[in-house]
Amino acid sequence: MTTKRPTIDDVARLSGVARVTVSRVLNGGPNVRDEVRARVMQAVEALDYKVNPQARSLAGGASRLLAFVFASDPENEPNSYYESALELGALRACLALGYQVLVQNVPQQTPDRQKRVLDLITTQRCEGLILSPPYSDDVPLIEAALAQGCKVVTVSPGGPGRGKADGVGVDDEAGGYDMTRELLRLGHRRFGFIAGLEGHLSADRRLKGFQRALAEQGLGEGDCVVLRGDFTFRSGTHLAPRLLDHPLAPTALVCANDDMAAGVLSAAHARGLSIPQDLSITGFDDAPVAAIVWPPLTTVHQPVKILGQRAVEMLVARLTGANLAPEPVFLELEHAVVSRQTTTAI
Amino acid sequence: MTTKRPTIDDVARLSGVARVTVSRVLNGGPNVRDEVRARVMQAVEALDYKVNPQARSLAGGASRLLAFVFASDPENEPNSYYESALELGALRACLALGYQVLVQNVPQQTPDRQKRVLDLITTQRCEGLILSPPYSDDVPLIEAALAQGCKVVTVSPGGPGRGKADGVGVDDEAGGYDMTRELLRLGHRRFGFIAGLEGHLSADRRLKGFQRALAEQGLGEGDCVVLRGDFTFRSGTHLAPRLLDHPLAPTALVCANDDMAAGVLSAAHARGLSIPQDLSITGFDDAPVAAIVWPPLTTVHQPVKILGQRAVEMLVARLTGANLAPEPVFLELEHAVVSRQTTTAI
DNA sequence: TCGCTTATTGGAAGCGCTTCCAATGTCGCT
DNA sequence: AGCGACATTGGAAGCGCTTCCAATAAGCGA
């Protein structure tokens, strides 16, 4: 059966020092002679020693545990690229940094969602918390976590979350703006916009950027129809008729994410419309689905996997003291309009 | 800062029993009077006490930690529905059962992949291991984990893995067979098949089912062209020309998963072909992408999220002793052909 | 050369829980 | 009434690690 793993005492014995010294070198403590340090490391190698994280954590050391919380409700949404890409990125970074991440799915309508998250971090002793939208703007949650001494990084905060904790994301407003500028450049003057779920502030910023671009051209509310979806493909198909039959007859449709854009695209196909001749459609995220639908979707790329990776890096920087900035820092990554084949000049 | 959480001693004190008795009721041990048990539970409630999992694990108790290992290489594949759905299902079940799952991504070409997995379970003290393809057929890995006293459940094992550990999956061969029967019923006689990555035995069973269905109709190797992809959309688009230009001129194409089918579909669109008039295409899995592409993809549904859920349930049944079967048990879930719009009679 | 600061090391005490085993109390039966 | 079997409880030890603090060695200026 289970062969017993070597303990810190085995290492201590083999290297001829006290247990506490081994602990010191393992944790990069100061005041250990290089010669001793080397000897200990050698013993660690020889025994293939690995610290027991439970023991370390119990004794008051670092648990090296991070929590990643996301909201999507798996009963309704089939599977969210955004969140699993974030997670994959986080997993990657953790591997390199020696941390573990506990993933928790807390649907937004969960009544005691704040408690669920806080319980996770206290019970499991998580040292860091990664919050994806819409939790990235949940200030009470952020503050409660912070108050417990847990470091927090928000991914794509869109509003107040931004000021309370470190964050990482793209400039969503600029993304919406850039996409819309491109459509304006192509000659479009009558627009549709499908927004995301209420409370997803970063997605609302895409709408803001859209409106700003229109306003710059002297276009206003009369020149666009704004609908609200829930980020799913289905909401795209459901909303499509309201756009397609709207008296304004938009020639271009900007969506707050790719799935909804794909939904409209599908509904348009079902009606026998030609895309982009009859309607230009754009998405946001550059999820795999954007390249998979036909025709491939023009969209705004954001490096989601890297967002996840940076999130844990920022967290770990706080935990190790590598980042001592007194103010929350926000890391803004690049976005880019990716022109594919659902947009055309008018 | 962090308000100290109550410990088991606090509960013991409040309920007027010894620490060990509290431990007993917490772990559902026998030989505790109902009256005492109730009193303890009441104290637990009153204090909002939660056991410290690190301490429990260190003391030799259950860690309630499971590991979920998957292989996809995030550098190449954008994001795999299959694996994230599995994970979501597992997460769900864990929540209900009071377990935690450590997710680990180990690309298949990792040189020391076996060690990576084993280190995870020994270092973190995982009690159970969920293996997704192709690890579900990695017998040395399974046996090594089992030898360490770690329970194992394989998801969609296709071959020998099936005999070594508990498993859950659908009947992939029957799925391939059923799909092909449907195509035969529609009058197709010349076929293409795009297989999955080598070593994914469950996916190979879909090919077996395909071949069996053909053989039953007296069709053989001369009546089909079999290509091997890697489960990605890109491999579908790459392989498409070799099928579309093949002298056999297949009228129906069966793919080992939806992404590859979507790839061929996209390539067909790019060539100006009409699907399904010019070619019937089918996928496997019924991933979200199947409903999103145009036209929506005929495919074989398998309940991936439930697979993940059942996997942890089976694991926990072993861990708690609810399942004492001496032999590995395999749980077979239902699959179903979902006819959408990429298939037509000829 | 001596006292004092600083660098290095180790001893001891737990972290919160479970295990093992001994100590009771209880019951049924002869 | 007396004895063994069993149910119920608690005491003690210790999981593997870190923290705190004391002990020793080394370095330095006067």
Topology at a glance:
The structure is a homodimer of 346-residue chains.
Chain A lengths: L7 H8 L3 H8 L7 H14 L5 H6 L6 E6 L10 H17 L2 E6 L7 H11 L4 E4 L7 H9 L3 E5 L5 H4 L1 E5 L1 H14 L5 E5 L5 H16 L7 E5 L4 H12 L7 E4 L2 H13 L9 E3 L5 H5 L6 E3 L2 H17 L9 E4 L2 E3 L8
Parallel strand pairs in A: 1-2, 1-3, 3-4, 4-5, 5-11, 6-7, 6-8, 8-9
Antiparallel strand pairs in A: 10-12
Helix pairs in contact in A: 1-2, 1-3, 5-14, 6-7, 9-10, 11-12
Chain A binds a DNA duplex (30 and 30 nucleotides) through helix 2 and helix 4.
In short:
2 copies of one chain form a homodimer. With 346 residues, chain A is an alpha/beta fold.
Annotation keywords:
alpha/beta; 15% strand; 3 domains; homodimer; 45% helix; 434 Repressor (Amino-terminal Domain); six-stranded parallel beta sheet; Rossmann fold; 346 residues; 14 helices; four-stranded parallel beta sheet; DNA-binding
Give me the count of strands of chain A: 12
Overall pLDDT of chain A = 93
Which CATH class of the largest domain in chain A applies here? Answer: Alpha Beta
The overall number of domains of chain A is 3
How is the largest sheet of chain A built, in terms of strand order?
2-1-3-4-5-11
Strand content of chain A: 15-25%
CATH arch. level architecture of the largest domain in chain A: 3-Layer(aba) Sandwich
Helix fraction of chain A?
40-55%
For this entry, what is the oligomeric state of its chains? homodimer
Q: Count helical runs of chain A.
A: 14
Main sheet attributes: strand count, strand direction, barrel closure of chain A = 6 strands, parallel
